[in-house]
Amino acid sequence: MKSKVTSLNLDNFTSTTTLATNEINASIQSKESLNDEYNPFEHRIVEHPTSTIGSLIHLLKGALGTGILAMPHAFKNAGLLVGSVATLVIGFLCTYCIRILVSASRDICRKSKVPSLGLAETCGAAFQYGPKSLRKYSGAVKLIVDVALVTTYFMGVCVYIVFIGESIEQLVNHWFPKIQMDTRIYSTITMVPLLLSTQIRQLKYLVPFSLLSNISLLIAFGITLYYIFNETLNTSNVALFESASRFPTFLSTVIFAMEGIGIIMPIENTMKHPEHFLGCFGVLNIAMGTVVAVYAIIGFFGYTKFGEGTEASITLNLPVEESLAQSVKLLVVLAVFLTYNLQAYVALDVIWKRVLSPKVDGKLKSNFVQITMRCSFVVGTVIIAVAVRNLEPIITLVGSVCLSTLGIFLPAVIDTVLHWEELGFLKWRLIKNIFLCLFSLIALVSGSTIAIRSLINS
């Protein structure tokens, strides 16, 4: 055990995995000159590749977060029947959009003869290989996507901090009634261990974090189901349909819960066997199928159990005076804490490679800047979490503005631009992507309006 501790040094935290640093040659080759036999998988050099199982664990962790706890509240805003159907539909759309984005990235890799591309590089290159009138926007698109990724995952982990603070406060108030501290103090205390854990920079080394987080969340999920089914469920106190004005909140919450678009390319790019990512029984379908099923179950039965009294997080509905319920809260806090690193990884990777790395020379200086960047990121998320303590509008805002845009609108646009000359019979690809864009814009406008109004009134 001692040897494991002493072997942990700064070298273990250096960022050496190539994720999104490949640049596309500015000259566009004709289709006739492209080498269709180029296989990007054979040319990927990843110093610390992740196994297929590890990639599956990461993808499950990326999609299984605090969103699962918000699903009963989401059903409360849609109704039992509408919520059930809509959850399955949104789950399918999110999975499909991830698939077309990964496929687009692989197509571009084959055309440009580069082994791998990150999300921003894929989007920029799609415009570069698209219609001539759009090629000049390639650099701007790449920059916009990078900024959107950082914003999305920065705000997403702010939700984690708020959730951890609320859960710990509830437990401490029960165990030690004489101690009365504000939620913001607990959120600030969370910063201390996060400052240490976020120094891990390799995706491979985060697999144990994701595995433990998944196990904790599944145990908590099982105990929550016990509380849900410990009495006969009564559907008379729930609505099958809710007011249309509440549906945007449902939509944004479900998109927030399911969407993990930012971690897709890092996971796929660092796989030891990337050919296992897509396919009928590939990593993507297995992970997202599991996520959709779990979310639908907890949403349906959680709302059926607690009805209109369903809180923004179902753990807040569990009886805090019971030890079993307390264990659920602790397990979920642990799971969310361990998920922070994986979610922050995306934003930190972009900031480092896009902004800081080109300006830093030398290993010692590089390590110092990395440590400073990661500490500043954690402090920033805690400051936002302390400033905005209402969990529900934050989830709605991140889901509607950030994840609906990145997870649905962006893949539809990229698919259209990249395949502009081959839109298919009756331009089915264009029609399909217009539908996805409209769906995303509806979630964006309606969800952000409700979220901003709630934040102003809170």
TrEMBL record:
One of its GO terms (molecular function) is L-amino acid transmembrane transporter activity. Coiled coil: none annotated. The chain crosses the membrane at residues 78-102, 143-163, 207-229, 249-267, 279-304, 324-348, 368-388, 394-414, 434-456. One of its GO terms (cellular component) is vacuolar membrane. The lineage of its organism: Eukaryota, Metazoa, Ecdysozoa, Arthropoda, Hexapoda. Residues 48-452 form the Amino acid transporter transmembrane domain. Keywords: Membrane, Transmembrane, Transmembrane helix. It is found in: Membrane. Pfam families: Aa_trans. This is Amino acid transporter transmembrane domain-containing protein. It is a multi-pass membrane protein. Its main location: membrane.
